[in-house]
Each structure stands twice: as C-alpha cells, then as structure tokens.
Design goal:
Blueprint lengths: L2 E5 L2 E4 L4 E8 L6 E8 L6 E6 L6 E3 L7 E6 L4 E6 L8 E9 L14 E2 L3 E6 L1
Parallel strand pairs: 2-11
Antiparallel strand pairs: 1-3, 3-8, 4-5, 4-9, 5-6, 7-8, 9-10, 9-11
Amino acid sequence: QVQLVESGGGLVQAGDSLRLSCAASGRTFSNYHMGWFRQAPGEEREFVAAITWSGSTTTYADSVKGRFTVSRDNAKNTVFLQMNSLKPEDTAVYYCAARDFRDSSSRYSSSSYCCWGQGTQVTVSS
C-alpha cells in the first residue's frame, strides 16, 4: 500500500490562504485516486475534495467549492489542496487518503480509502 505524509498546516487568520501537500511513497502513485478529508473536534470525519488518478476530474464538498482547489503532480508523487478565503469553520485536522484507481466505490466515503496520512492541523482564527 501507499504511505502518505501531509504537510503545510498552520494557524492563519480568516481570509488567508494555505496550501497543503501530501507526499506519497511505497507504491505507484498514479494507481490511486486521492482524497482530502477533515475532522474537527467532536465531529465526524468529512469529505473535502477528491481527484482522480490522472487529475482529469475533481470533486468538492459544497462547503469548500470555489475556495479550495485539489491538484496532483504524479511525477512528484504529491497531491495538493490549495485553500483560499479560509473561514474559522475550516478549522480541523486535514487528512489525505488514497483509493485504488480500480475501486468504483464512492469517492465521498472515508471507508472507500485504503490508506491515510497522519493528518495536519489547520486553525483559522476570526
């Protein structure tokens, strides 16, 4: 399975931007669709964004649509989440996850993903 390590989190003010990175190792990165999820204290883990193995298709949660952009660089085995116009309600631990490209299960469900990073904290102050 692929190993994932997130980076780029931090403490920012409302309206600021952050770019999260997720570096993959261990298996062929382009064999995986990738997703971003987040989990706030006391809340369930929720879907944020997903990108197919080729990068041709992206999907977003309504709460981040128009503000966040997911992208990937298969040559560098990395997926990114560009987060603009951040809001206090975006505060959470952000996780990247990998889903086998042959897997037709829902991109929105955390149970569809085999492999997870350790998470990176994003805190947005008002």
